[in-house]
Amino acid sequence: MSPDVLATIGASQVQHGPHNDRIYLMKLAREDCPGMAPRLERLARRQGYGKIFAKVPHWAAKHFQDHGFSTEALVPGLLRGREAVHFMARYLKPARRIPRGRVRLGRILALALARAKAAGQSRRPLPRDCEIVPLGPAQAEEMAAIYARVFESYPFPVQNPEFLRRGMAEDVRFFGVRRRGELAALASAEIDREGANAEMTDFATLPEHRGQGLASALLEHMGRAVREEGVRTLYTIARAASPGMNAVFARAGYRLAGTLPNNTHIAGSIETMNVWSTPPTSPPPSGVHGKTGDGSLVAVP
Prior knowledge:
Layout: E1 5-9, E2 12-17, E3 22-27, H1 36-47, E4 51-57, H2 61-65, E5 70-79, E6 83-91, H3 102-119, E7 130-135, H4 140-150, H5 161-169, E8 172-179, E9 182-192, E10 197-205, H6 214-227, E11 233-239, H7 243-251, E12 255-266, E13 269-277, E14 289-291, E15 297-299
Parallel strand pairs: 3-4, 10-11
Antiparallel strand pairs: 1-2, 2-3, 4-6, 5-6, 7-8, 8-9, 9-10, 11-13, 12-13, 14-15
Helix pairs in contact: 3-7, 4-5
């Protein structure tokens, strides 16, 4: 199946297509709201998609709520360390609202949180034969080959070297772990300069190098690097079915912001995802409270 397309609606950025069976509103332009929610719904109904997934600044949340969207995750201070962002959903196929394997996913999350509490925020040292290096356009073929080997499917075409190069030109920073010269693991930080945040994503470790803390080392290194460039809040959208990745973010001090049922086509099927985030470097002002996907209350400006 072809990858979903990146497009604009008005001045807002979206991804949509049958691969993820959804519309993903990635960035909402202020001039497109009010009015964006019904435009997304018309597109979704025309294409027969099962879900509309939207990242919505707090100022626009009521518009989306009035059009049947609900908040599944909430990240305080995601915009410039001050304004919350709601991860909202509207389901056009009711069955998609129910996570598959809910009990198993709950156990995985509980185990990740328990392991993080037991271990604190410590991690094992990077193996002596490893080094973390920045990756650029010259390494795109090598990177794409690893993504193709690790992931049966992925929500974005990371197995395509040209897609990786385009991302690098648009402020996506890639880092890798080289072991005796060979690339063993890699990940990226997608920087939003205007919002002063970064999504920590695209983690892949070759099977023969797993269990040695490479993802944790990459996460720590990337976090330091982007914070030096003015990023104030870090977040991720991680597979709820992955014990390892949930534990990596929990141990690193990220907080669970909510859960996105049946959201993303990855590793061969549409999976439920967990949103994790760091507190902003400057705490947002206290204000109204909103509910995350798990029902807990979070202060937002």
